TrEMBL record, chain A:
Positions of the STAS domain: 1-101
Superkingdom of source: Bacteria
Cross-referenced Gene3D superfamilies: STAS domain
InterPro entries named among the record's database cross-references: Anti-sigma_ant (IPR003658), MlaB-like_STAS (IPR058548), STAS_dom (IPR002645), STAS_dom_sf (IPR036513)
Name this polypeptide is given: Anti-sigma factor antagonist
UniProt organism field: Azospirillum endophyticum
PANTHER family per the UniProt record, alphabetical: ANTI-SIGMA FACTOR ANTAGONIST TM_1081-RELATED-RELATED (PTHR33495)
TrEMBL record, chain B:
Histidine kinase/HSP90-like ATPase domain span: 125-259
Molecular-function GO term, any one: ATP binding
Transmembrane is among the record's keywords: no
Biological source species: Azospirillum endophyticum
Top-rank lineage group of the source organism: Bacteria
InterPro entries named among the record's database cross-references: Anti-sigma-factor_SerPK, HATPase_C_sf, HATPase_dom
Keywords recorded for this protein, A-Z: ATP-binding, Kinase, Nucleotide-binding, Serine/threonine-protein kinase, Transferase
UniProt KW Manganese keyword: no
Listed name of the protein: ATP-binding protein
CDD domains according to UniProt: HATPase_RsbW-like (cd16936)
């Protein structure tokens, strides 16, 4: 998995690319740090270029959400498609995290 | 396609290994020739042809680099990938080949090698390549089967062979702990050398529909499947696997999982 951060006026958009699995622990840790450091209150994870996520990947997204809450930031998942959308649905993540198309 | 069920059945099991050839890209030609001769196999320099072929993972193609990344080596006629334990002689290798025989695909790899391979994705591609055209995995079902395979192999490597506990709390400190444990244990030569064995079989089931069986065995301390918990960040993904697979058996104290998929 790779990611890029784009800081806009109202929100920071973090685009994830590739496959998010247990093996991306270090990248997710770095990503959570970067989201905490930028000044914007609204942090959007753009999942439209993410091809695959596993159960540990979902867990890491939930950790990111917890850490943003701790930092009083809003955390949103956006644009999930294909396998990623399916797993988010099956795991009922929408009950915990706002999901936008 | 010519012929009916018989044709499909024989095609489904056509790659079931009675090996005739040995491929070992990491070995010098003279050593490959000698080893192949001792095993009664023909040495092969590439995976062309149609006769089932066993490939040895040695030397430079380990750790996900090099030849194991070549797509062709996951397709028929390659029917086994074996990373021989150090100092394995021909008779030791013959025993591993006997284990491999009777499967449509057999992998016997160290944790260090398997960890770098994204084996779930590879297994899905390998399975797809071995199915008759009418039974192709598509759409959601394809995604689901890939996820189940990925979760099962990840469990064997991370929780089984490396003994890393799943993330239990939803915070960055727990993510750090998981990260540290995983890196430390991969760096431990004893744990990194533990093996994972993956055996895939495609059998005709009722109505001629294929039944895919995937057995994944690790060398960890095992586990007892307990009640499912939704509080942790990563469990064993067993709930997901159970929802996707048509059959799920856990054996040998949690060191072996057998998944069944009806196509």
């Amino acid at each position: 998995m790779d990611y890029g951060i784009e800081v806009r006026d109202q929100e920071a958009v973090i685009r994830l690319r590739g496959r998010l699995t247990f093996n991306d622990h270090a990248k997710l840790r770095a990503l959570i740090g970067e989201m905490g450091q930028n000044k914007l209150r609204r942090q959007v994870l753009d999942l439209s270029s993410l091809e695959f996520v596993d159960s540990a990947g979902i867990g890491m997204l939930l950790i990111a959400r917890e850490e943003m809450e701790r930092a009083s930031k809003q955390f949103v998942l956006r644009g999930a498609a294909g396998q990623v959308k399916r797993v988010l649905t099956v795991a009922q993540i929408a009950k915990i995290v706002p999901i936008e198309d | 396609m010519i012929g009916g069920t018989t044709q499909e059945t024989s095609q489904a099991t056509a790659y079931r290994a009675r090996f005739t050839r040995l491929l070992a890209p990491g070995l010098p030609a003279d050593r490959l020739d000698r080893l192949a001769w001792e095993l009664g196999l023909a040495p092969a320099t590439d995976p062309a042809g149609s006769e089932p072929l066993a490939a040895l993972v040695t030397g430079s193609e380990r750790n996900g680099a090099g030849l194991m990344d070549a797509d062709a080596l996951w397709l028929p006629p390659v029917a086994a990938w074996i990373e021989p334990p150090s100092r394995t002689d021909a008779s030791g290798l013959a025993r591993l080949l006997a284990d491999a025989a009777g499967n449509d695909l057999y992998l016997n790899l160290t944790t260090a090698t398997a960890h770098g391979l994204q084996p779930g994705r590879r297994l899905l591609a390998a399975l797809s390549a071995r199915l008759a055209p009418g039974w192709a995995l598509e759409g959601d079902r394809r995604d689901d089967v890939e996820l189940a395979l990925h979760e099962a192999v990840s469990n064997a490597l991370v929780h089984g062979n490396l003994g890393v506990t799943a993330m239990k709390e939803l915070n960055a400190r727990e993510l750090d702990r998981f990260s540290r444990d995983l890196n430390d244990r991969l760096a431990d030569p004893v744990l990194a050398a533990r093996r994972v064995v993956i055996a895939l079989r495609i059998d005709p089931a009722e109505n001629g529909r294929p039944l895919v069986t995937v057995e994944i065995t690790d060398e960890g301390t095992g586990f007892s499947p307990g009640p499912r918990s939704s509080s942790g960040a990563s469990g064993r993904g067993l709930g997901l696997i159970g929802e996707i697979a048509d059959g799920l058996e856990i054996e040998d104290g949690g060191r072996r999982i057998r998944l069944g998929f009806r196509l």
